[in-house]
Amino acid sequence: MDVTEERVARTIHFEDEDLPLSLLPKRFAWCLLIVAPEGDVAGLAIFLYNYAAWSGEPGLYLEELYVVPKYRSRGYAMQLIEAMAKEGQKAGCVKIEWVCLKRNARALAFYSKMGGQVREDWALLYVDEAGIQKLAASSKGSQ
User: Fold this and answer.
1) Count of domains in the chain?
2) Residue 115 lies in a domain
3) Where are the beta strands (DSSP E) in the chain?
């Protein structure tokens, strides 16, 4: 996408009154647990609410989806994602985003089957703790 100031001005359609803040939970992160019939916690999903920068619409970011190995292939991951989607739907969310290791073929197949799409046009970027310290130390801005 060729981004210019003019293109950005035409693309963004975000108004303060568009924010359904009253619908969004006040917590930073949410954790869903699924319990197996045996009584053990079989898996979890940790997610956050966010916004689509270009439209101002709310979305979800799936930070972690994990099912204990002995409980895999029982549908628990899908149940967790479905429960998360229901929570997002209540808040008017229009998207769910997450990352997955490219080498995790099993997870990628699962996500594809449930409707997940790989975004080839985006790169995952990362700054570690040392990088954060370096950036913060070199800050010329006001505190």
Assistant:
1) 1
2) yes
3) 29-35, 41-51, 58-67, 96-97
